[in-house]
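Apologies for my clumsy wording, but are you able to produce some protein sequence, whichever is easiest, and the tokens describing how it folds?
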Amino acid sequence: MSNETKLYKVIRYVFLIAACIFVIIPLVPLIFMAFKTGAEYSSTSVLEPPKNFLNTYNFAYAIRVGKLGRAFIYTAIILTISLFFQVTMTAMVAYVLHRFDFMFKKAVKIMFTLTMFIPVVATQNLIFRMMYAVGLVNTMWSVIILYSGVGIVGIYIMLNQLDNISREIDEAAMIDGAGYYYTFLHIIFPLMKPACTTMIIINGIGLYNDFYIPNLYLNRDVQTFTVALYKFFGSMSTPFEIVAAAIIIGMIPIMIVFIFLQKYIYNGLAGSVKM
């Protein structure tokens, strides 16, 4: 048993190291290119390190010409408002589904689950017509509204958190004269902070990387980072070393979020799988 355990550990670490190398190798030449000058990029191998890792010209050029700084601001505004409504409404839906019994409760859960199997592209023709009819196309509010919807994964994360919050808390609040709204907003919702944090991280990363919705609904004066990066990358006159710097800039926020909040991601995923 001892030998099998050691062999298992060796295989596990070998596999993990190989997986890390597989992921990191493509990033190394990208980082090298981001710090190279135009002359270096055209005369050296992609695997050759730059002469000066303090060369920030490419990054400054990408932010200035690619308008990535403004795109970051629009992205931050859209994500902040969208995640606020998304988390709040998801918590409300989960609270009702968890604490109350009502007719067609199972049917409601099934309908939320079925939304996972409907391709986004399949419904965009109708949704775009609705957004256009109310004058929201080419404004941030169209993307914010679409991002603010309640998803089944978020509901399961919230339901798992509610399993760990005793119903006696609700009953005690009711005995003291609190209504349902007060009980949820002032007592239950603050106790759901771990689930809310998990949902913000997981959905926030997904929305940050989304390209389809912002590209479809926003004009060129209001762009999220992914759309601005795509259009900057698509310009034939943009040197690739500057494009590499722009890609690195876009990766930095996600890396920071993941490094400092990864434990919430793991806990949230474990909870949603449990459900």
About this structure: The chain is about 75% helix and 0% strand. The chain has two domains: 2-43, 67-226+246-274.
